[in-house]
Amino acid sequence: MMSDWYWQQSEEDRRTAIAAADRLADGLSSGWQPQEMPAPFHLRPGEGCFSQENTQVLQYLEGDGTYTHTSASGSGAIGVALVVGSMLGNHARRQRAAAEAAPRLRVVDAGRMYLTNRRFSVQGQHQWIDLWFEDIRMSSCDGASVFLTMGSIPAVALRVWPAPYHFALFRWLAHDEIIRSSAPTPPVQPRQPPAIGPGHPGGRPDGR
Question: In angstroms, rounded to a whole number, what is the distance separating the alpha carbons of residues 34 and 106?
């Protein structure tokens, strides 16, 4: 599974991601539409794939709140020290267990994400995950992840680069909305956004 460091973004990465989303908005505003691309899975009638990138899937879940209780006994100064040390250790473990049990976004899988005009489909390391647009109640983006509040399962976050671009593409595919990550600046002439992804202009040199 891809480590968290893989998704750490520099300020330059953030600006590049926002610029990609705004180029998409410029293109959509001028009448340009993204082209479909092949997908390695069966699509439903009328469904097309418009993006594919690596992703890390997080879900808002509780953790394992169990902890190991230890005890100690003895006599004299050494015995008292052992008992006190055992009590302090148990307290610290209880606190760590409580923190671990608290609900938060937790990594559940990672793999290849395909964005179609019907769903986010993730070919994970353990399973295929389909997040159908009709099941999404709310959505947002923090610059690094696309957040999806679902109707039937706990909230999901997709770490993907560039997240603002994929969020904007999702909103256009799902709701026919054109959104920007920054203040709009009227282009001198209509511009078509470059393809975003491995091997395409506008993607990272490392293929992310």
Answer: 32
Q: Considering the entire predicted model, what is its pTM?
A: 0.70
Burial class (CB in 10 A: 0-12, 13-18, 19+), 126: exposed
Which residues pair with residue 131 across a beta bridge? 120
Residues 132 and 106: their CA atoms lie apart, in Å, by 21
Q: How far is CA 67 from CA 70, 72, 82, 184, in A?
A: 10, 17, 19, 52
Dump pLDDT digits (tens) for 108-160: 999 999 999 999 999 999 899 999 999 999 999 988 999 999 988 899 999 99
Q: Give the separation between CA 130 and CA 24, rounded to whole angstroms.
A: 24
124 contacts: CB under 8 Å, gap ≥ 6: 57, 109, 110, 111
